[in-house]
Design goal:
This protein has about 375 residues and is of the alpha/beta class. It has ten helices and 17 strands. Strand 11 and strand 12 form a beta hairpin. Helix 4 runs parallel beside helix 5, helix 5 runs antiparallel to helix 10 and helix 7 packs across helix 10.
């Protein structure tokens, strides 16, 4: 799939003129364009409206008025084949809008042409696409990076440091609760299990980043609350045993009346020495005697969905040399367990059965059951 869409301007070879010393970036998809701040080591050399976000000239004009100049004047190409040939990008930034799905053929084409890909967020329509993405990333020669920006929150970094220093002791349980008010937007209908597939993507990403999250046995439920018009399942819960040795108790209600609300929610990490409580507001630890201490966190350097790309460019020498994991961006193989956990959760919710997967490379005593086999 080459993603043919109308071009916003005529295509010419002059658009591909190299810019010395800068990474040549091709932007695939326009989601979040208005928040792009630019980067001294990056030169936008093209864009492709792969997802038909601005199908008409009027839509392009209205949207473009809010874009930074570097993207507004950036050459628009009708399809990926043309963009790769004429723009000669070093890397492509793929921004899939809410409600759309990751076009695996597009990522595979870019990787096969030697273009590194940073996926701001993978939105899989079929979890068999995990295998296709794995095959494409392993075949290369381009590399597939996955950006997940919740991992870059300052309180997550503070927790990461505490864990690395052994301050909490061995973690034996994680309880994650998240409540959001009732909302109904058209893009939500692009998911069947919105809670498990969209927001859990970020929560599981944080969990995998700070502890590792190789779910060996997972049981999940997912449902649409009474009276909902969202057209998707906005409530979910999951219990998981992990190869790392801790247990996860997870609950997400995107339909609650109880405040406080927050997209991050509350994650409680029970350690043998100390308990840590991670929230939208910050990080606290509790001693055995119940004494609370608020942990100072640093400034947020890389913010929002573009944060992983900015950090990726800041550490460009390492990134383009194949460094992994890299700040807010990981090579696909390092992020794959997050997608595997979501796949198990969706399968469990649809079958009503606990699902299992073996991770022999993580746990020496792991089961030999195949992924997705019901217990």
């Amino acid at each position: 799939m080459s993603g043919a869409v109308p071009a916003a301007a005529s295509v010419s070879a002059s658009a591909s003129a190299p810019v010395s010393g800068k990474r040549r970036l091709l932007f695939v998809g326009y989601e979040g364009f208005e928040h792009w701040t630019g980067h001294p080591l990056a030169e936008p050399v093209g864009r492709v409206d792969l997802y038909g976000e601005h199908a008409s000239e009027g839509e392009r004009d209205r949207a473009g008025a809010h874009w930074p100049e570097s993207l507004r004047i950036c050459q628009a190409y009708p399809d990926l084949d043309t963009a790769i040939a004429l723009a000669r990008p070093d890397a492509a930034v793929v921004s899939v809008p809410g409600g759309a799905k990751t076009t695996v053929d597009a990522e595979a084409l870019l990787l096969a042409r030697g273009v590194d890909v940073l996926a701001k967020k993978l939105r899989l329509g079929d979890y068999r696409d995990i295998e296709r993405l794995r095959a494409a990333s392993e075949a290369g020669p381009g590399r597939l990076f996955v950006g997940e920006h919740y991992r870059q929150l300052p309180q997550v970094e503070a927790l990461r440091q505490l864990l690395a220093a052994g301050k909490l002791g061995r973690i034996w349980s994680v309880t994650w609760r998240c409540r959001l008010p009732y909302e109904a937007y058209d893009w939500m209908r692009g998911y069947r299990h919105l809670a498990l597939e969209d927001l859990a993507y970020h929560h599981f990403g944080v969990l995998h980043d700070v502890l590792g999250f190789h779910a060996e046995r997972l049981y999940a439920q997912s449902f649409e609350p009474p009276g909902s018009t969202a057209g998707t399942m906005t409530a979910a819960s999951a219990l998981a045993d992990t190869a790392e040795g801790y247990r996860l108790n997870y609950q997400l209600l995107w339909c609650s009346s109880q405040k406080p609300f927050g997209y991050f929610g509350e994650a409680v990490f029970e350690g043998r020495q100390v308990t840590a409580r991670l929230t939208d507001e910050g990080l606290e630890i509790y001693s055995d005697a119940g004494r609370k201490k608020r942990i100072d966190v640093g400034e947020v350097r890389y913010q929002g969905a573009w944060g992983p790309l900015i950090q990726w460019l800041d550490e460009g020498a390492g990134a383009f040399a194949g460094m992994t994991p890299l700040g807010g961006a990981s090579l696909f193989g390092a992020f794959e367990p997050v997608l595997g956990a979501i796949s198990l959760a969706v399968r469990s919710a649809e079958t009503g059965q606990a699902c299992v997967r073996a991770w022999p490379e993580v746990s020496a005593g792991g089961t030999d059951r195949r992924e997705g086999e019901q217990a």
